[in-house]
Amino acid sequence: MSSGHTCDKRCRKTRAAVESALYDFYGSHSHFERLPVTKLCKVAKVSTPTFYRHYKGVHDVVRAKDRKMSVKLKRRLGDESLLTTGLVRAFSFVKENDDYYVINFLQQYEKPFENLARILEPKILEFVKLERKTRRSVETDQRICSEIEHYLIFEIKWWIERDACDFEKSTERINAVIFYSKCRIYEMEEKLRKKR
Predict the structure, then answer these.
(1) pLDDT for 156-190, tens place per residue?
(2) Secondary structure, 3-state, the chain
(3) CB pairs under 8 A, 24+ apart, for 135-138?
(4) Could you tell me if 84 and 148 are in contact, meaning their C-beta atoms sit under 8 angstroms apart?
(5) 105-132 as b/e: b if 16+ CB within 10 A
(6) What global pTM score does this model have?
(7) In degrees rounded to 5, what are phi and psi of residue 78?
(8) Contact between 127 and 80 (Cβ < 8 Å)
(9) Tens digit of pLDDT for each residue in 31-78?
């Protein structure tokens, strides 16, 4: 094994330790921006100079974790084009990574939820196009898609807060997203029909 591979492995190990320490250390009692780097380093068992070789600060660790989770979620969703299947996989992913999503929910940090909705956006947009009866502009479809994304984030947060990520309850939440989506599409169809 060359020294380059050893360095890569060591770098990945250091980054994993720091990211793990950040999420292990946190819960509802504190906020990311209040965590001193020295304390994070102590929990991660890495030196401060080592930390700064990899990150600029605590928020850099948070952003790195967000990117990593987005890549994993994209892989999980794959090429599946159906919204319902995409939602099942997304809720399953949130359940498997509930420590990450719960802590970000408690931190009131929106990025992970926005990333999830953005990754599902092509599936939502395709669903809107398939469900609508009349021709509409791209802007109208995009607006409905955006509303559905916001509602999806609301349902995931509700699932985290009220249902404690109970996978049995995820079906209710998924059905609520589909029902809301169909209602918004129908309402828009009615509005357009009345304008004629």
Answers:
(1) 999 999 999 998 999 999 999 999 999 999 988 88
(2) CCHHHHHHHHHHHHHHHHHHHHHHHCCCCCCHHHCCHHHHHHHHCCCHHHHHHHCCCHHHHHHHHHHHHHHHHHHHHCCCCCHHHHHHHHHHHHHHCHHHHHHHHHCCCCHHHHHHHHHHHHHHHHHHHHHCCCCCCHHHHHHHHHHHHHHHHHHHHHHHHHHCCCHHHHHHHHHHHHHHHHHHHHHHHHHHHHHC
(3) 136/188, 136/192
(4) no
(5) bbbebeebbebbbebbbebbbbbbeebb
(6) 0.85
(7) 60, -145
(8) no
(9) 777 788 998 899 899 999 999 999 999 889 999 999 999 999 999 998
